[in-house]
Structure formats: C-alpha cells, structure tokens
Amino acid sequence: MLLKALEQRYQSSAHLAEPLMSFDWSQLQIEHILPQAWQNHWPLPEHTTAEERNWFLHGIGNLTLVSGKLNPVLSNAPWRSLNGEPCKRDELHKHTRLEVNRQLLDAHEEWSDEAIRTRAETLYSDAQAIWPR
Q1: DSSP characters for 27-50?
Q2: Of 21, 75, 97, 119, whose CB count within 10 A is highest?
Q3: 59 vs 121: CA distance, rounded Å
Q4: Where are the domains positioned within the chain?
Q5: 85 and 77 in contact (C-beta within 8 Å)?
Q6: Which residues have CB under 8 Å from 82's CB, separation 6+?
Q7: Residue 63 is inside which H or E element, if any?
C-alpha cells in the first residue's frame, strides 16, 4: 500500500510529465532489492553483522514494486553485473516504468546497507507528505 501510494504521488507531482495512466496494480509484486538470499552475491561490509543486515532486509528502504514477469529475472541477482550476468540495476533500468524505481536508480549507483537506510529515510519523508500528522 505504501509503495503504491508513493508511486501515485511521484507520478502526479511530475508537473511536466504525461498524465497518469491507470494500470492493474495487482500485476505488481514486491521485490527485495537486497535479496532474501543475500549471502550469495552480497558480502557483509566490515562492522555489519548478519543480524543487522537481516533487520534491514524487509524494511521499506529495501523494497520496490516490479511486474510479475520481471521479478524472477531480478530474484537473487547482484545489483551490478560481476561477469556480464543479469543484474538488478540493468534489468530495472531496461524494463521499469515506475517512478519509484526511476528514483531508486537515479539516487543509487551502488546498493548497500547505507543505501537502504538512506532510501528508507527518503520514502518515510515522502510518505509524511501524503499522510501528515
């Protein structure tokens, strides 16, 4: 619900953009940018424990929306390609039409625990604009 509301806000606030087009939200799935099986391609940085990493794994900063067709392609892939293999950043760049993903790509060349924290703060701030106290 939060990612959907943010997407609608981002699309409607783009003053020079084309008008919003409706689409079937039920065709979107939640994708973990840092995958649930992160151990294969996402080594722990110094001074970070697996417990700390797992705490951020399911937080809003690490989640996005993708199509059901794109989700399996992204799955456990690395953020950047290591040997020409498919990677999340390139596949999102090629296929996404969502502003929430465009902003993710524009703001984060690399994906790390710090990037997850930063994005969570940005999304939280944007959500406060939708639902002020």
Answers
A1: GEEEEESS-TTGGGT-PPPTT--H
A2: 119
A3: 11
A4: 2-7+30-36+49-126
A5: yes
A6: 41
A7: strand 63-67
Candidates 98, 51, 41, 50; CA nearest to 74 is: 41
List the structure tokens of 78. Answer: 């690395």
pLDDT at 17 over 70: no
Per-residue pLDDT reduced to its tens digit, 70-95:
999 888 888 998 788 889 999 999 99
Cβ neighbours, 10 Å, residue 53: 17
Nearest CA among 132, 5, 32 for reference residue 88: 32
- How many residues appear in the chain? 133
How far is 75 from 41, CA to CA, in rounded Å? 11
Q: Which residues contact 127 (CB under 8 A, 6 or more apart)?
A: 2, 5, 6
Q: What pTM was computed for the model?
A: 0.89
Tokens for 95, please give them: 């296929």
The CA-atom distances, in angstroms, between 115 and each of 43, 70, 87, 104, 119 are 15, 22, 17, 10, 6
